[in-house]
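Summary for the lay section of the report: proteins are chains of building blocks that fold into shapes. Here we show the chain for Anaphase-promoting complex subunit 4 WD40 domain-containing protein and then a coded description of the shape we predicted for it.
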Amino acid sequence: MSYTKKYTFAPLPQTNRGESIKLGTDPKGKNFVYTNGKSVFIRDIENPTLATEYIGHNAQTTVARYSPSGFYIASGDANGNVRIWDTVNEEHILKNEIRPISGKISDIAWDSESKRLIAVGEGKERFGHAFLFDTLSSVGEITGHSKVINSVSIRQQRPFRAVTASDDMTVAFYNGVPFKYAKTIRDHTRFVHAVEFSPNGDHFVSVGADGKIFLYDGKSGDKIDELTSDDAHSGSIFSVSWSPDSTQILTSSADCTAKLWDISAKSVVNTFEFTSSSNAVSNQQVGNLWQGDWLLSTSLSGEINYLDKNSGKVSKTIDGHEKAITALAVSSDDTLFTGSYDGRVYSWPFGTDSDHTVAKNFNGENHSNQVVALNVQDNKLFSAGMDDTLRVGDLENKSFGGKLVSTGALPKSLSSTSGKTVIATSENVQVYDSESKKVCQQDNLGYAPTVAAIDPAGNTIFVGGEDNKLHIYELTGDSLKHIKDIGNHLGYISALAPHPTSNTIAVGDSVGKIFLYDIESGKPTIQNWVFHSGRITALNWSKCGQFLVSGGIDTNVFVWNQEKPFKKLAIKNAHVDAVNDVGFLNSSLSDESHIGVVSVGQDAAVHLYDATKPQ
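The coded shape description reads as follows.
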């Protein structure tokens, strides 16, 4: 029993208003790298569907940079840790780890020999540190700033030089090696967001919140000129990148534009305008990179925009989730639907065209708060959110209709079968028909409902409660008739999955136990699926009904065989934090001996596994 992680559908870079983000370039030209949550994501720059995830940090990651050799990546986090790990092995073996400063790492720079690094950010004793990557011994002092350092760059030719940019509105220049403070540059009048040496080492530039761009000599640090133009940026400039030939720079700004500048002419060559969203703030450009022929700029919404430097237009935009994915549904053609913490819903047309899968935003009015649950039924997508609404979307048009249903209370779960939908809220249980009209509502339950499900025939409603029991109701007309209560779990009921063909239901609870009950007798038929160490977050049956997949807050996913209860497949550490939802693929990656498993979690990533069926 084994599995292979076949695909990782990566989230967008994590952004914060008023802060720049760092996109790391690959010296080999194949990938680019960025951070989200506690993970570092490496994406193929030509086909960004292809991605891998590094999960070594225990705190929120903030920046990741390739070494010039391409063999290592150094990544920093919010606790001040820098981890250096290899890019060659799939396991990304850790080479070294250091805590150079006491607060958040804002930026990291390598020297051209892939030996020395400078890490900068927030700190108490210091705001930056220079060290060797193998012995971690100091190779200089990063001083001269009185506030957080936002950016650092090292000249890639000897004699080495380094430059840093800070919230104290200054740029500091260092000679090296060892790196030693040389002078402070006070040309900016507001925060300095980014500094960058040109690839040939002749110049470096600084950009800041004052919307200004200054050009300096790379060896001496003397100012050469300010880049000004009639069509210059009108807002804060967050990021700057050099062209490979050192003749042009790309700047990204809060004025919702990215601009291409010619250094010798000191003028704007092209302006890229971003108006894809109705929310202008989300179009602010907060990060960029120039790698070979590829120019990328990142919006505050997290969208990665590919720029065509010749036409001055955006050639394509990579969309997706930025926050934790909290809900998952899989259609019969293996299209994935995901909902996230910030209310966004996306479709991923996986099917057979997997190498070109991109996230497509579900049109119409999305939720204004966390998506609690998604369900696909009869060519419709049912979505329940913490904005206390039920929304119904059309799968063909990938769009939510104008109609939304108020649940009147916080939804806890959603379950649909042909023509009926049941929702458990914090106060009651509600049943809707195919037109999303309320059929019945059961109040005064005598317990607090946590999850609800409906059997495939649409006649029986199952409700899990905080009283650690499963409550069974019969749907008759416009009312629910209580039939019986079964189970006496040690924790509250957290997940339900009625069997697709038999009179059986899988029940997961808050202490990590999964029971299979015969509904008629109320007795457990399987009660030894106890390998999760935390709350069960999701249960789903395979189409054939032989296999059950479970996910938990313990980061693990298990595939169980009902016919051979002692056989299981364990996918350990499937996500960095909790696994929030799981499912099976119907045809893709599935055959007589294999089955496709999909999971989503707190790391905002979608993972697809080619798993051997537990036999």
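Put simply, here is one thing we learned. The chain has a mean pLDDT of 94.
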